Amino acid sequence: MTALPPATVTAGRRGAPAGRPGPAARGRKLPSWLGALPLLVFAAIGFGLPVGALLYGAVTRDDPATGATALTGEHLQRSLQGPYLGSLVGSVQLSSLTALIGTVLGVLIAQAVVTARGGALRTAVLTASGVLANFGGIPLAFAFVATLGISGVVTRLGHLDSLGWNLYSFTGLAVIYLYFLVPLMVLVILPALDGLRPQWREAAQNAGATAWQFWRHVGLPVLAPSLLGGFVLLFGSAFAAHATAAALVGGSVPLVTLKIADALSGNVLVGQENVALALSLDMIVIAGVVMAVYLPLQRRSSRWLH
């Protein structure tokens, strides 16, 4: 009988394969969070520093006589009064309305694409949505002025001015926002609609359920996380939009982004830079509240996906 080498016998007694180093030889494993360290550093630099600068400017004030810096709540208080408060309310109203309409229209268009038999319609809609969702700013405002403005082509051909149409108003700005919000919602909700299994609809039909009952008890609960996420995305996009509104309506429609630009540039009052920082901080708080409402609902409704 051949005798085994001492190393093999020792490894067999310890329960480890021969030739494989033990836990002590392999050394200690690195913490798993180190893999996310680059992302954390990027978030701290890209988001933490700007937010810290906003917070510092919103709660501090420089004494013009001595140059000393002191804490104050004056800027935050002024940002929640008068025209500044009206601009916050106007932005929330415009963003909520356009996000809601954009969500509904985007879902209807995406559902029509999913149920269509031909692939040409899907390709055309996805291509157009990818382009229109990123089309904004000054060019978008100029395009609407040339078509639906006071002397626009469509306005003259359809005599829209006699119907009370005004592009340079809250309603006109909402129509322009929907131009890029609806395609964005189509891109967001289309993969979720593709995830609805045909077997679920067939099972509901075999059980005697109507189309409304299927969407109420199966379709909408499954799509709820994507619908909520799309609404939040559309709200944030409309809430932060600036260039299109600045080029189109100026100060005729109260929006917080326009007030921030006026305060920073001194168009209305000089020395309101800290109030602009306070308004920016108010926008961050409003966005945080929207996310705080969305996340619990998303966790509750995501159980349908498992």
Order of helices and strands: HHHEEHHHHHHHHHHH
Q: What's the average pLDDT?
A: 81
Form type? globular
What share of the residues does DSSP label as strand, in percent? Answer: under 5%
Trace the largest sheet across and list its strands.
1-2
**What low-confidence regions span 5 or more consecutive residues with pLDDT below 50?**
8-13
Spatial separation of the terminal alpha carbons: 58 Å
Q: In percent, how helical is the residue content?
A: over 70%
Structural notes for this entry:
By secondary structure, the protein is an all-alpha fold. 70% of the residues lie in helices and 2% in strands. It is built from 14 helices and two strands. It has helices at 6-14, 23-26, 37-58, 74-79, 82-115, 119-132, 138-148, 153-158, 170-194, 198-206, 211-240, 243-248, 256-265, 273-301, and strands at 60-62, 69-71. It has a two-stranded antiparallel sheet. Helix 5 (82-115) packs across helix 11, helix 9 packs across helix 11 (211-240) and helix 13 packs antiparallel against helix 14 (273-301). It is globular.
